[in-house]
Each structure stands twice: as structure tokens, then as C-alpha cells.
Amino acid sequence: MLSVSNLDVRYGQFRAVQGVSMEIAKGDVVSLIGANGAGKSTLLRAIAGALPIHSGRLLFKQQEITNTSSSSRVQQGLSLVPEGRRLFSDMTVEENLLLGSTVKRSGDWNIERIFSTFPNLVKRRHAKTGNLSGGEQQATAIGRALMSNPDFLILDEVSLGLSPLVVNQVYDSMESLKDAGTTILLVEQDLERAMRFSKRTICMLEGRVVLDKLTSDTNKEEITQAYFGLHQSSKQEVS
Amino acid sequence: MMNSLVQAILLGGYYALVACGLAFMFQVMRIINLAHGSLAILSAYLVWEITDALALSPFVSVLMILPIMAIIGLLLQRVILERATKGGELLPVLTTFGLAIVIDNLLFQQFGANTRSLSPYLGDLSWESYEIFGLWIGKLPVIVLITAIVVIGGLDLILRFTPLGRQIRATAFDPDTAGLVGIDARKIAGISAAIAMMTVAISGTALGLRGTFDAYAGGPQLLFAFEATIIGGASSLWGVFLGGIILAIAQSIGALIHPQGFLLGGHFMFLIFLFARIYFNRDVFTLKHWFAKRNKGEITA
């Protein structure tokens, strides 16, 4: 469904993402893991169209989207829940959700279904999102992305700044997305949770992909080593 | 005294009408359009031409130039502003400044130095007035004031309650995230510029109906619009409405003090608000600030 080949994203001279390639098939649930500054968010934002791509190609449903605008990618069914939620804080929950349906893609997500998926939002329907708790804000941000009926949902650190209890709620509601066959790519700092949720794990280090395996074929130790870039040093110890 | 206050409020209606387009463009697109006044004069000339050529009422001609100005707005955004904004915040200011000079001089070349007015086409309406409590209130200024309320109210309702308004607000608030949500920022900017230019068309017509204009009358209109916007605070259109009225009252007080004090009074008020906005917290200018304080005082008492 999404094909990333040899992607380079730069901030001026700094290469935040270097030569990243990955294939994500329909129905995949992939978690992207890596330390701060590994280029995860940069990669996700470039895929969603919020950052310009320096070189490389991006194909979505066999169509080239390397240079298209973020709004046209939403139109094609690719939706990002940005890091830090990025809600329109002077608007109400309902207004934020309605903005999500700007592109009018057909599908079974509508405002009532969002409220039944995130029941904690019901009584906050007409509250300004700037006044909500972190969990309610996150639910609104996910709901806003779902309102476009995406085929491919990208979630950037949805559990950031939330209490463990709320994180559980958010992930519980995402299980139903998974069951519905939505393709999901997410960044998650909690390794155990990421491994439990996803079918596949990709680990990034300093802008490069250092590990890309089915979650069932790998283990916590291997991912941790990739996370800290310990592969080479351990080899050196052996030699 | 009472008379000059009422006249000032009516004049303020005109200022609000000129200012709302400028403020709208600044709010939504973060662009200070220095060609605002010149575009208003351009639309006044267009109305004048159509009225003269087709022997129509100016009120009908203005309806005809609304779509023309909307297209000019769209082109302004696509051809000039979109490129200019890529070069930083200062570039649109310089570009529109240049555009103002170009428009002024093209108008001068085409129409010469004669002053024009739309009032001859109005018949009796240009001098008819209502007599209320011994005050003579011109019908035309009342129409302009009502138009200002309708235009600003209409814009406010569109921004608040329609999907288009939501998308405009979202784009103004955070253009990057608006794109991620699926809003086509380019389309929204084009529509916003078109809407702003339609208000410019109405304000240019109002100027022509109230008095006279010539090719270089754009500068003062821009100045009044700018002062009203700063006094009212660029964040809300109703604030701009209030700003226009405060500006007109200040000018009238200036004129009462000294025959030449009309413009000075306005400038003085503008500077007071400008420095107040720089030195005081934003809150001071909201009603909430004052009422909240009073409530607190009652609780502690």
C-alpha cells in the first residue's frame, strides 16, 4: 500500500532521514521505534506531506505522491495524527472533528461513531479543545484523523504526556481499528506496548532503518540493541 | 456635540467597512495588503464607469463588480501574494506597496486628475436625511453604517458557522496542520482573498457615494483602514468595527478642538492604542478582563 524508497529528508544541511526504504502492505500494523532524534517523526511527517522530500520516492496505492500536497494525500486516504496532537485549540471538539471530514471520502466513520468509540468525548462535544485533558485531546486528534475515513493511518506518539490508564483507553479503542483492517503505522516509546500492538517492528537509528522484522520473529533484546546501535560494537567485542 | 458624535459614528461605519477587508486578509492570510486603498479606488472607478455607461443605479453596479473584484482577489493571491509570501514576511508588504503605486498611476493615466463622485447618480438620496430628536441624519451614511454591520456580521457568521469558515479559521490558526487534516490551504487562501476584495468593492463604492475620489485617494483610505484595524485589534472583526467608530470619534473631537485637527485627532488615537497594545497585556482590551476583575472584587468583599 505504501512504498518508501531511498527517502532523504533534510533540515538545511542536516540529513534527518537518510536513504530509508520500506514497504507496508494493506492491513499491516507497523510500529516505528527509535531514540529521540532518530528521524521517526521526520519520516512520518514527510510521508504525510508536511515536510518536503529531498530525494527518493514515495508511492501510495501504486501512485507517486513524492511531491503532492498533504491535503491531496488525505484525499487519497493517508492520514496523520501529528505528534503533540496539534488541535485547533480555539475550536470545539465537534468543530475539530468536522474539519477532519473536509475531504469527504466515503466510509463508515462519522461524528457519531467517533463519539461512540471515544465515549469520554461525548460530554465535551462543545468544549474548546484547548481546555481538554491530554487524553481527551488525544482522542479528538485521533477522531479528527479518522473522520477522513483513511485507508492508512499514521500515529505519532499518541501516548505522549498521557497517564498509563488513558494510554490503555486509547489503545483499546485502536484495537477496533486494527480489527477493521485499517493499515496503521505508529511511533511508540513504550517498547512492550508497541510489540504487543503491532505485527511488524521497524527500528530507526540516526536517520536510517536498522531493523525491520515481523514482531513475532524478533525479541526485546534484539530491538534494544538496534535502538542503541549496539550491533557493531558487540561484533567488535567478539572479534 | 451630540450631533458630531452621531455623525462620527456614521463615519465610523464607513471606516469599519474599509477596514474589515484589510483586517480579514491579515487575520486569515497574515498579509498586510498595502494596495487595499488603491484597490478600493479601483472598484470605485469601475462602479462609476458601469453606472455611467449603462445608466444604472450605483447599487446595481456594485453587484456587478463584486464578481470582478472577487476574480481580481483570486488573481492577486495566485499571481502575486502566493509567490511573495514564500520570500518571508516583509516581501508581501513591499510587493503590495509596489502594486498600490502601479494601480494609482494606471488610474491616473486612464481617468486623469478630475475628482469623481457617485452621488450624482443617486438623485435625492445623496442629501435626504431623517430628523431624529432634532438631529439631521443623512440617509446615505445610515445605509453605509448598516452595510458595514451586515458585511462584518455576515463575515463573522460565515467564519463561525459554515464549513468554509471553519476551514479558513483552521488555516489561519495552523496552516501545516490544516493541510494534514485535508484542507487545501491554497484554495482557502484564494477564496479568502476573493472575499476580502468583495468587501473592498463595497467600501470603494461607499466612498464614492459619500463623497469624491480621485486616482490618488487610495492612500488615505488605507491609512484609515489601518488605523481602525490597529485600534480595534486585528483579532476580531467586531473589534475592527469598534475601532472604526473610535477613530471617527477621535477625528471629530480633533476637529472640534482645531479646524485642522481632524486627521491629527485620528492619528493621536491610533498612537495611543498602538503604544497601549505594545505595553499592556492583551487581556486589558477584552471585556472579560474588566468584568472578571469586578467579580473577584465582589467575592473578596
From TrEMBL, chain A:
MF annotations from Gene Ontology: ATP binding; ATP hydrolysis activity; branched-chain amino acid transmembrane transporter activity
Domain called ABC transporter: residue spans: 2-231
Presence of the UniProt keyword Transport in the record: yes
SUPFAM superfamilies: P-loop containing nucleoside triphosphate hydrolases
One GO BP: L-amino acid transport
InterPro entries listed in its UniProt record: AAA+_ATPase (IPR003593), ABC_transporter-like_ATP-bd (IPR003439), BCAA_Transport_ATP-bd_LivF (IPR052156), P-loop_NTPase (IPR027417)
Superkingdom: Bacteria
Alphabetically ordered keywords of this record: Amino-acid transport, ATP-binding, Nucleotide-binding, Transport
Pfam family, one: ABC_tran
Family: Belongs to the ABC transporter superfamily.
Protein name listed in UniProt: Amino acid/amide ABC transporter ATP-binding protein 2 (HAAT family)
Source organism of the structure: Marinomonas aquiplantarum
Classification of source organism: Bacteria, Pseudomonadati, Pseudomonadota, Gammaproteobacteria, Oceanospirillales
TrEMBL record, chain B:
Molecular function terms, GO-annotated: transmembrane transporter activity
One GO-annotated biological process of the protein: amino acid transport
Transmembrane residue ranges: 6-24, 31-48, 54-76, 88-112, 132-159, 188-209, 229-250, 262-280
Keyword Transmembrane: yes
Membrane topology: Multi-pass membrane protein
Keyword Transport: yes
Keywords in alphabetical order: Amino-acid transport, Cell membrane, Membrane, Transmembrane, Transmembrane helix, Transport
GO annotation, cellular component aspect: plasma membrane
Pfam families given in the database record: BPD_transp_2 (PF02653)
Location(s), subcellular: Cell inner membrane
Chief location of this protein within or outside the cell: membrane
Family: Belongs to the binding-protein-dependent transport system permease family. LivHM subfamily.
Protein name: Amino acid/amide ABC transporter membrane protein 1 (HAAT family)
Organism: Marinomonas aquiplantarum
